[in-house]
Amino acid sequence: MPTRRIPSKTPKVRPAKRTRRAGSAIVTFDTVRQVSRSLPHVEEATSYGTPAFKVRGALFIRLHQDFDSTIVVRTDFDQREELLAADPETYFITDHYRNYPWVLVRLSHLHPAALQDLVRMAHRLAASSKRRSSRR
């Protein structure tokens, strides 16, 4: 009988690529907006006075208020550790985020394909946490 592979709970996000090929798009917050708004039940909002995206009221991504071209992305601690280890020039945290499931991402270093994965992962986590909290 063939073995059935069970996907891990944590979706994998491709590490950002350090080099860009000719013609490769540069990621901006407008790119983040396009990807985020293409997902179901997403609303554009604000958080700490900056543009943000929520799924059914749960925040999953926002522009950081203090760093230029940096976004704050919902994640889980295991995925965050993998991202930080794989590419510390792109993914980082400050002391403030140490105990929270969020990662900061420098858009100038992020490959467009990695952005797609990152936004979808954050959306999925926020949507599932909102469903769990609404069941109580």
For the biggest sheet, the summary is: 6 strands, antiparallel
Low-confidence stretches: 1-11, 16-23
The percentage helix is 25-40%
> At CATH's second level, what is the architecture?
Alpha-Beta Complex
Give the DSSP E fraction (strand runs of 2 or more residues): 15-25%
CATH class, anyone? Alpha Beta
Query: What is the 3D form?
Result: globular
Termini gap: 40 Å
Describe the structure.
The structure is a single chain. Mean pLDDT is about 85; it is low at about 1-10 and about 15-25. A six-stranded antiparallel sheet has the order 1-2-3-4-6-5. The longest helix has 23 residues, at about 110-135. It is α+β, with helices and mostly antiparallel strands. Helices cover about 30% and strands about 20% of the residues. It has helices spanning about 30-35, 75-85, 110-135; strands spanning about 40-45, 50-55, 60-65, 70-75, 90, 100-105. It has three helices and six strands; from the N terminus they run H-E-E-E-E-H-E-E-H. The protein has a single domain (about 30-130), classed as Aspartate Aminotransferase, domain 1.
